[in-house]
Amino acid sequence: MVLVDTTIWSLALRRKRPGPKEQVLIDELSELVKELRAVLIGPVRQEILSSIPDPAEFEVVRQHLAAFDDLQIVQADFEEAARVYNTCRKKGIQGSHVDFLICAVAIRHSAAVFTTDKDFTNYSKLLDLELHKPRKG
Fold it and tell me: Which domains does the chain have, with CATH numbers?
C-alpha cells in the first residue's frame, strides 16, 4: 500500500505537459493505481480539490478521485500526528499538520508515502516512515 501525497496527484491531474522526471512519477502513480496499491486520505483529497478554482475542472478531478476510497483516520492517528510533530519540532524540523497526519496514517497502515515534498525526507530520518521511490527513472 502506498499513500500518495498531494504533490504526486497534482502532477498527474494537471493539464500541462510533464517533463521527463515528472513523467516518471506519473507513470509510477499509474502503475500503483493498476496494482490497486495507491491510497489517499481525506485531507489530501481536500488539498487537491482546494487548488482548483474552475468549477468544471474541479468536477472532472473530483470524479477521477471518487474512484479511490479514503483510508480511515481514527483518533489515534490525530494523537500520533501530534506526537510526531512534537518529535520533529524538538529536532528543528517543521511541517504542516496535514504532513504529520499523513505520516501517522502511513505508519499505522505500514504504507509508504509517495511524494515530491522534501520535508518527508526529513521526517523519515526521525520517524519509522517509509518513502516510496519510483521503480524506473
Answer: 2-126 (3.40.50.1010)
